[in-house]
Design brief:
The chain is an alpha+beta fold. It contains nine helices and four strands, in the order αααααβαββαβαα.
Length: 226
């Protein structure tokens, strides 16, 4: 990971993760790791380290899936991308997301409560705020414009539900960052992607990615871009 990321970040990825016990250095590292262009390769590296550890014990998946950024870890485990190219892809993904210039980067918040109740509360909130991630039937993440998300958090709390801001740089999985899709697609086109060797589920459809020959790669790129 350091070999791949040092030219892209200006220093080794591990320098953002392993710091001394100096409080200022730890605080700076925590802030750096919240920057999506650093967060994404760091999380991917952790994913693949865990995958390789499991493989060393003979544990291999029958199928794989990953949530959001985790989909790239699943891509490596499925054989679609090698680790080096996956790092470059998530670095570009993070950079394009960070590069988005809008008046309002938006907010995200985690909500604990029944999905239908979450939808019901959101319908009454003015402004752009949507369910960005459905994590289970009793937990979801909302995202959108700052004012609308803050209003939603207040509405959820008044309804007796737990609502907590998530420390991210942008409202991911919302239309606020939609402009990043095109550049990410172009980067992915240069990544020598292969058909999956292990079945993998798509975040976009909830179904398996196509399997077969190299002809299905453009469809994989389109789904990943979305």
């Amino acid at each position: 990971a350091d070999d791949t990321m040092t030219p892209l970040l200006g220093k080794p990825l591990t320098d953002y993760i392993f710091v001394n016990d100096d409080d200022d250095a730890i605080k700076k590292a925590e802030e750096d790791l919240k920057q999506t262009e650093i967060t994404q390769p760091a999380v991917l590296t952790s994913d693949i380290a865990l995958t390789r550890m499991l493989e060393s014990y003979g544990i291999k998946p029958d199928m794989v899936m990953g949530h959001s950024l985790g989909e790239y870890g699943a891509m490596v485990a499925s054989g679609i991308l090698d680790f080096g190219n996956a790092l470059k892809a998530v670095s570009a993904r993070g950079t394009e997301m960070a590069r988005i210039s809008v008046d309002d980067n938006g907010l995200m918040a985690a909500i604990l409560g029944p999905l239908e109740k979450i939808r019901e509360v959101l319908e009454k909130v003015k402004g752009y705020v949507v369910i960005a991630n459905i994590n289970s039937g009793k937990q979801a993440v909302i995202g959108g414009e700052t004012k609308a998300v803050n209003a939603a958090i207040k509405a959820f709390q008044e309804a007796g539900m737990n609502a907590q801001l998530i420390p991210v740089s942008h409202a991911f999985h919302t239309k606020i960052i939609a402009s990043a899709s095109g550049p990410i697609g172009r980067v992915l086109s240069d990544m020598n992607m292969q058909p999956p060797q292990v079945p993998i589920i798509s975040n976009v459809t909830g179904e398996f990615y196509p399997q077969g020959s190299k002809e299905i790669v453009p469809e994989i790129i389109d789904l990943l871009s979305q």
